[in-house]
Design brief:
By secondary structure, the chain is α+β, with helices and mostly antiparallel strands. The protein folds into 2 domains: about 90 residues, Alpha-beta prism (UDP-n-acetylglucosamine1-carboxyvinyl-transferase, Chain), CATH 3.65.10.10; about 170 residues, UDP-n-acetylglucosamine1-carboxyvinyl-transferase, Chain (Alpha-beta prism), CATH 3.65.10. About 30% of the residues lie in helices and about 20% in strands. It has a 4-stranded mixed sheet with strand order 3-4-6-5. It has a 4-stranded mixed sheet with strand order 10-11-13-12. It is globular, with a radius of gyration of 21 Å.
Length: about 290
C-alpha cells in the first residue's frame, strides 16, 4: 500500500498538549498533566486520524474542535458509541466538536456493517457472473460504489435487509479515482480493478489515497490480465493526492485495464489485505 505517514495524527496530539518523541525504536507520547482541548485542522482529510483525535479528546479537559474531519460513516458510528457511553461529541458538517467529560460508562452498541466486505462480495459475485444477497449492507454507505456499478452495467436491488448484486450481461469499462468520503474508497479500488478485467473495453483507475496500492496488479498480470501502470499527467498532483507529495520513493498511481481477461492459475504472493481478496477473486475466475 505504500507509505502510511501518521504526522497528521501526531500533530493533533501535540496540539492537545502531548509531547511526542519519534525515534528508530518507535514513538513515545507523554502528557503528565493530561490532554487539553484544542482546535486542530487536518491539512487533508484523514479517516483514522479523525478517529484517533476523537478518542484522545473525549476524556480531555475542555473543548476540542477537529476541522476538515473525515466524513466516513465509521467515524459517525464511533461518535454514536462514545455518546452512548456518556461522551459529548457532535458533528457539524466536516467539523467535529468534542466536549471532554470526566469519565465514561458502559453501554451496548452494535457496530455498523463492514462496507469493504459488502463491496468485496458484490465485486466477486458480478465478476464471476454470479448472484448474491449481502445482508446488512447499507446503501447510504455505498453511494459512490453503487453509482459506478450503474455505469459499469452491474446490477443490484435494494432490499429491506440488505442489497442483492448480480451479473446481467457484459460489463462496461468504467473509470474511477479514489478519494476520501464521499468519494470512491481506496479499499474498494483493488476489487474494482479486478472486476474491470472482465469488462469490455479500456478502463482507468487512479489511486489517489495510498501511494503504492497498485502492487497487486503485477500478480494479476501473471494470471493473464492486461494492466499497464502509469502516472497521470496532473498540473498540481498535490491537489489530488492525499499522500505526501512529492514522494520519497516514486510509484505508479494509475492503471489502464484492458478487458475482458481469461485468467489462468498461477502461484501468487499476497501484497496486503485487500490485495489478497482480489487475488482470491481472480483465482475463482481462473
Amino acid at each position: 500500500m505504500g507509505d502510511r505517514p501518521i504526522e497528521r495524527h501526531l500533530d493533533g496530539f501535540r496540539a492537545m498538549g502531548a509531547t511526542v518523541t519519534c525515534s528508530d525504536d518507535g514513538i513515545e507520547m507523554t502528557a503528565p498533566h493530561g490532554l487539553h482541548g484544542a482546535t486542530y485542522r487536518f491539512a487533508k482529510k484523514s479517516h483514522t486520524g479523525t478517529e484517533a483525535l476523537i478518542i484522545a479528546a473525549v476524556l480531555a479537559k475542555g473543548v476540542t474542535i477537529i476541522e476538515n474531519a473525515g466524513l466516513e460513516p465509521e467515524i459517525d458510528d464511533l461518535i454514536e458509541f462514545f455518546n452512548k457511553m456518556g461522551g459529548n461529541v457532535k458533528r457539524v458538517g466536516d467539523n467535529i466538536e468534542i466536549k471532554g467529560v470526566k469519565e465514561l460508562h458502559g453501554a451496548t452498541h452494535y457496530v455498523m456493517s463492514d462496507r469493504n466486505e459488502a463491496v468485496s462480495y458484490a465485486c466477486m459475485a458480478i465478476a464471476t457472473k454470479g448472484d448474491i444477497i449481502v445482508e446488512g449492507a447499507v446503501p447510504a454507505h455505498l453511494t459512490a460504489f453503487l453509482s459506478k456499478l450503474d455505469e459499469a452495467g452491474g446490477r443490484y436491488e435494494l432490499l429491506p435487509y440488505g442489497i442483492r448484486f448480480w451479473y446481467d450481461g457484459a460489463l462496461r469499462a468504467a473509470d474511477i479515482t479514489t478519494a476520501p468520503e464521499p468519494g470512491f474508497m481506496t479499499d474498494w479500488q483493488p476489487l474494482w480493478t479486478t472486476m474491470m478485467t472482465q469488462a469490455v473495453g479500456v478502463s482507468h483507475v487512479i489511486e489517489a489515497v495510498h501511494n503504492n496500492r497498485l502492487a497487486f496488479t503485477k500478480e494479476l498480470n501473471l494470471m493473464g490480465a492486461k494492466i499497464e501502470l502509469y502516472n497521470p499527467d496532473l498540473a498540481n498532483p498535490s491537489d489530488l493526492y492525499q499522500f505526501a507529495w512529492p514522494e520519497k520513493t516514486p510509484n505508479f498511481h494509475a492503471a489502464k485495464i484492458t478487458g475482458p481477461t481469461v485468467f489462468h492459475g498461477f502461484e501468487m504472493n499476497v501484497p496486503d489485505l485487500r490485495g489478497g481478496a482480489t487475488l482470491v477473486m481472480a483465482a475463482i475466475m481462473a
